[in-house]
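Hey, quick one: can you model this chain's 3D structure?
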Amino acid sequence: LFLPNVTAQNIIDAMLLNYEKRIETLAGEIKVFGKSISDIIKMASILEEEGRTDETRRVIADILWKRLDEKMLLQVDASVVYATGKSDGNKLSGEDFKLKSPYNTYINLGLPPTPISNPGLDAIRSAIHPTKTKYYFYLTDPEGGFHPAINYEQHLVNKEKY
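Sure thing. Here's the predicted structure for all 162 residues.
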C-alpha cells in the first residue's frame, strides 16, 4: 500500500527492495541450478504466462530449458502476445507469429531480451526446479487443459485434437 503523495521513484524503490528480499530466499537454489538470474527471471516470466498450475509450469520449464540447450526455437505464444501488445493468445493471427521482434520466440533463438511479465515466486521456483520429462512440445487447449508431446508428430496430433 502506498500513500497518495508517493512518487514513482518511491514505488520503484519499494518494488526493487521487495524483489531483492524475496529472491534472496532462493539464492542457494539459484546457485545450484547454475543458470544466470537474468535467464531464470526471463524463463519464470514465460512460465507465469504459459502455465496454469505449478505442476504444468515445472513441466513447461523442463521443455523450454531443453529446447534452449538444444538450440531449438522456444515457440512460446506468450512472447508473441507480449510483442504484439494483444491481450491474449486467442487473439493472435498467423501473421503475428512472423512479426519481426526480438520477443518473437517463433523466429528468434533463445529467451526474449527481457522478462515478458512479472513472475511470482512460484514461477521462479518452477524455473529452477523443472520436472524432468521426455517432452519437447506442449499446448494448452481453450479450456486450459495441458497437452505435452514427446515429438513434433505427437504435437501435431494434439493440435488437431485440441
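One thing worth noting: The longest helix spans residues 8-24.
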